[in-house]
Amino acid sequence: MSGSSNASATSNSGVEFDHLPPRWEPTEARPRLPVGVAVVSVLIALLGLVMLLAGLLFLLSAFLGSAVPSSLEIFQSIDVLGAGILAILGALLLAIATSLWRQETWALWTTIVLVFATDAYLFFTGSITILFLLLIMLFVYLLAVRRYFY
Fold first, then answer.
1. Beta carbons within 8 Å of 146's beta carbon, 6+ residues apart
2. For residues 77-93, b (16+ Cβ closer than 10 Å) or e, as one string?
3. Contact 55, 83 (CB under 8 A)
4. Which of 21, 85, 100, 148 lies in the 20 to 30 Å Cα band around 109?
């Protein structure tokens, strides 16, 4: 009997340690990419790729002459400066699309500013069409999903 009372006495006394590992704190989870942002990112990437290829093909045709057939040119009526600007804008759009996919805040705000500027241009030129309404809906959607970006 004395053995059982001794075991119950030690179980009630509690165990103390000199140190414990640091308390675990959950890290802030990165939110998932919204489907609409993924679609917008892919569309921007496709547009950027077309612009980059169009600019580069025109520049290659202009500087290499017959090495690149002129039938590959996407835009026939631009000059060398315009093709260079087109290639640069295409590369910038590819960077924005990649950053949107990675949910970077600067890309979101850049896209919002570009969509707003396009809407303002369409509004002030009197081009209120389906594109104008789609861009307004995209603008509101991008503002609504801004909490998913870090």
1. 105, 108
2. ebeeeebbebbeebbeb
3. yes
4. 85
Domain ranges of the chain: 34-102, 104-150
Which residue from 57, 64, 55, 47 is spatially nearest to 85, judged by alpha carbons? Answer: 55
Query: Residue 59 in contact with residue 87, Cβ under 8 Å?
Result: yes
Is it the case that residue 25 has pLDDT exceeding 90?
no
**Any idea what the Cα angle at residue 87 is, between residues 85 and 91, rounded to 5°?**
115
Q: How does the average pLDDT of the chain come out, rounded?
A: 84
Helix axes 35-64, 130-144, angle to 10 degrees: 120
Residue 57 confidence class, pLDDT cut points 50, 70, 90:
confident
Q: pTM of the entire structure?
A: 0.72
Give residue-wise pLDDT tens across range 104-129.
999 999 999 999 999 999 999 988 89
Residue 35: phi and psi, rounded to 5, are -60, -40
DSSP state of 68: S
